[in-house]
């Protein structure tokens, strides 16, 4: 870790230790994270480091927007939601932070909010969508986040937790998202969650995670905004691998994962058909599509975009389209930037898949925006 990365980690750690406020629960511990004016100073200091050119090597090809590790991004709330760890750890847990972004479709720029601490844990994943309002074609926007409680291993799965959030607008709101209580829902590693688009959907979500060894499991859930909870279906085994990631649109589910724990590894995908009535997924055969690690995927109903880490320091994307029978994907890959642990959010557009990718470069978070002049229809 370089001097700038170390300073960023210290700043965020000091913020977490020095502020007090709302209570957040985790197994065998109660942590308090404050939301004070000190957070604004932290944010300004972090961005000042980036603007001064102190970001680690590899961050300059993209645009830096925050500091942290293991980012995840979703299209929702009229823009973007991003979550990440404050810093890397080999044991225990770290503060988890989120920010929201507004894409500028005429300039391929994202205007990010300051970041906000919302929980503790590791390996967070975020999804956003809409839940149908009775008698209306529009949906109430919602956010779902999942994470591990602490660092685990394939031989020692750990508790998995979720939170449901709703947007808060207006000058009186202390944060852009109001989060419900943190709830335990399973045990495992590397959870990923996806909200079922389109907006105005039924509140169904799909979650995947790694279990004991290399077993991959999924769950289907229904989000309730009345009490910020999720009614989960059973945890069901569906494949073998590591670091799964999932996307869903309508009744079509797309999942990617590493075949092995090594880096790089063969990367595989599966396409499934979701039943919200039985809360199950019928999967097609899995297929090899690339080599790398830490894959992530996004799907807008027609266009699929996958990102992963390739050769050391390089991040790659595979753009795909479903075959007519919706069982296989035709992928075309290319290198697009440098970094590690990438995430992606796709926007429907009049000229193909618009997207925003996030990745880490050391302890700096950067983004790449590929946006046309056509804003998304939802």
Helix content: under 10%
On the 0 to 100 scale, the average pLDDT is: 82
CATH class: Mainly Beta
Q: What is the strand content?
A: over 45%
Q: Quickly give the CATH architecture.
A: 6 Propeller
Rg for CA atoms: 19 Å
Q: And the CATH topology? A: Neuraminidase
Please give the largest β-sheet: 13 strands, antiparallel
User: How are helices and strands ordered from N to C?
Assistant: HEEHEEEEEEEEEEEEEEEEEEEEEEEEE
Distance between the termini: 41 Å
Number of discrete helical segments: 2
What is the overall shape? Answer: globular
Number of domains: 1
Describe it for me?
- By secondary structure, the protein is mostly beta strands.
- The protein has helices spanning about 5-20, 35-50, and strands at about 20-25, 30-35, 65, 70-75, 80-85, 95-105, 110, 115-130, 140-150, 160-165, 175-180, 185-195, 205-210, 215-225, 230, 235-240, 240-250, 250-260, 265-275, 280-285, 285-300, 305-310, 315-320, 330-340, 340-345, 355-360, 365-370.
- The protein has one domain: Neuraminidase.
- Helices cover about 10% and strands about 55% of the residues.
- The strands form four sheets. Strands 4, 5, 6, 7, 8, 9, 10, 11, 12, 13, 14, 15 and 16 form a 13-stranded antiparallel beta sheet that branches. Strands 17, 18, 19, 20, 21, 22, 23 and 24 form an eight-stranded antiparallel beta sheet that branches. The chain has a four-stranded antiparallel beta sheet with strand order 3-27-26-25.
- The longest helix is centred in the first third of the chain and has 16 residues, at about 5-20.
- The chain is globular, with a radius of gyration of 19 Å.
- Residues about 1-60 have low confidence and may be disordered.
